[in-house]
């Protein structure tokens, strides 16, 4: 673990592309297309903030079962938009590119060769280690380590956390200090299970195509405050304080209020109708959701 002001490794679950597109009446691939500026922004923000490790969850093992057109589009985006278009920019900025996960058997040999080439030419860069997790699953990574330990014939008593970590797919990847997930969901989704053992988790309501440097900086600030023991600060800010941009929290708070109000009204109407008809009233149901965080 690092001190409050030092964040060595930030990992991002880039979620919400599909919803961003659906909100505009567009196909999902338009959301993926619109996510490219966010990807550039998060890399630039990590460089500007001096964060040396950034890992982006671009595609999970489960994502291979998405419609072939969407998978093909994403792999094309990886080849054309990220490697062909952005690689020289990343290289000039001192970014070392690495891939994590298993793509072989799912993508063309050309794409695999392109990725290996990108890893090779950026190998000497040290400003930022950018790891793209593609075809990645945390459990798969743990199984990979267990198999490697067994294959190496390591005696059980010699297996320490350090020895185990050395047999994960990328033994260089440090523990995650801060995990950011966009899109409003609050799940790990099988991402970096080993590395996130002590990570701060920051979930943002912003959809990934709208993610920018300010969101990255906000997450760093939440992490810093929590590490300083100022536990109440991020929660207080979410209720309208100065730290969280209102644009992030307002829809969530409104949805919470509306849901609570609507549920109460529906239950009241059912009870009144049941009383009127002489039937047993419906059960009270779960308590309404809590109000906005204070
Ligand atoms: C999750 O949003 C996002 C993805 C599955 C893809 C993320 C990919 C990029 C940001 C572009 C780079 C691509 C590669 C492969 C390097 P979702 O589609 O699940 O959104 P939803 O939750 O709103 O449906």
Automatic annotation (TrEMBL):
The active site is at residues 15, 63. The keyword Nucleotide-binding does not apply. One of its GO terms (cellular component) is cytosol. The keyword Metal-binding applies. Substrate binds at residues 16-20, 28, 32, 60-62, 64, 66, 181, 187-189. Pfam families: Prenyltransf. NCBIfam families: uppS (TIGR00055). This is Isoprenyl transferase. It comes from Actinomadura chibensis. The gene is uppS.
